[in-house]
Amino acid sequence: MSRKIMKLNEICTEPKLTSSNPLKDGYDRYVGLEHIDSNSLTISRWGDIAQDKPSFIRVFKKGHILLGKRRPYLRKAAIAHFDGICSGDIIVLEANQAVVNPELFPFLIHSNKLWSHAIKTSSGSLSPRTKFKDLGQVEFSLPDLDGQKILADDLLNIQRNRVLIEQQIEATSQLISSTLQETCGMLGKRTPTDRLDGRCPEDYMVVKLKDILVKVNRPVELFDHLEYGTVVARRAFGGVEARESILGENIKVKSQFEIKGGDFLISKRQIVHGGCGVVPQYLSGSIVSNEYDVFNTVDCLDMSFFSWLVRTPSLRNYFYISSVGVHIEKMLFKTELWLNMPIILPPLDVQKTIAMTLNELVFFSQIQFGKIDHLEEIKTHLLSE
Fold first, then answer.
1. pLDDT value of residue 165
2. 276-296: per-residue pLDDT in tens?
């Protein structure tokens, strides 16, 4: 199939329609950058002009593409399904249907080629912006209109599959939340006066965290010529991940401690934001400073279960009330105070069943994310042929 090289400014224009009185001109909705989701082709939110009285005057029509020119690395561009007005930080694009299939056009706008060029040519340090003049120079290799229709149909099928997978991921996320709440929601104190003994199921037991967790310290002697792996406990219970490897001579804080797979790691300055997790086996031997607390477990506690338990509202609150400080970004974790907090502990076999169920749901989600990545690879290949 023969193809023709065409620049973006040949396949679309930037209509510069305005309205000084949108309501009088029949427009009731507006779109700002906050209404456009990254990597999404659709607009699912908007503002009410009569209620919010925005100062925007730029007009868009149904079928136009709204592209965020501020911070293009956010990849915000979506199809308008209604008429309205939009922010001056949005570029309005209209496809030239004489040379480009209108269903293919949004996929060209969302191509890696366009976003890479937008980022490369944007100007400004704190809030870089791109311009249509620069974007217009991006070149695409396109078949004739019949070939474009075939390509557009393939890409639309990929998009429909992606939407279905995203719905599965969302449903799984909700199932994880409900399962966690049903199995673990009652295991911590809901209020300061809540008596756990009064609602402890048979075969469960009330314990303090210090009864089931053992704080460990494995001091490391640093050698200047050796490299040491470092880690970070991600916020929002994002787990423990590798950071860079650093030569001993370049490590400023010389008081370092070894961690091992299966340890439970707490970032004392990030724990109010969920900065904790179980250390994966492949990160055994990495080091942390005393900004972290490291724990092992006794035989009656499954650490995978515990990593789920701390995500429940009551256990998350334990982290907060065991931290001191005025500003939430500077609160410091008081380990001993936290270790004195009580929980209801299920039998070990119940813990393992709960953890296995939740972990399997996460694994299912990871498979779905992998499918999305595969679809994106196919889409990129189709657009680059």
1. 97
2. 999 999 999 999 999 999 999
Whether the predicted pLDDT of 385 surpasses 70: no
Q: For the segment 63-75, what is each residue's pLDDT rounded down to a tens digit?
A: 999 999 999 999 9
**Nearest-5° Cα angle at 343, 338 to 344:** 170
Taking the CA of residue 327 as centre, how many other CA atoms within 13 Å lie in the half-sphere pointing to its CB? 2
pLDDT at 337: 97
222/233 Cα distance (integer angstroms)? 22
- 146-186: pLDDT as tens digits: 999 999 999 999 999 999 999 999 999 999 999 999 999 99
Q: Tokens 């965290």 sit at which residue?
A: 209
Cβ contact 67:74 at 8 Å: no
Q: Are 383 and 107 in contact (CB under 8 A)?
A: yes
Q: Which tokens sit at 69? A: 């020119």
Structure tokens at 88: 């001056």
> Residues 14, 20, 21, CA angle at the centre, nearest 5°?
120
Distance from C-alpha of 189 to C-alpha of 201, rounded to nearest angstrom: 15
Predicted structure pTM score: 0.84
Q: What are phi and psi of 61, to 5 degrees?
A: -115, 160
- Which amino acid is residue 234, in one-letter code? R
- Decide: 193 and 342 in contact? Cβ < 8 Å: no
- Going across the sheet that includes 292-297, the strands are 213-215, 292-297, 264-267, 276-278
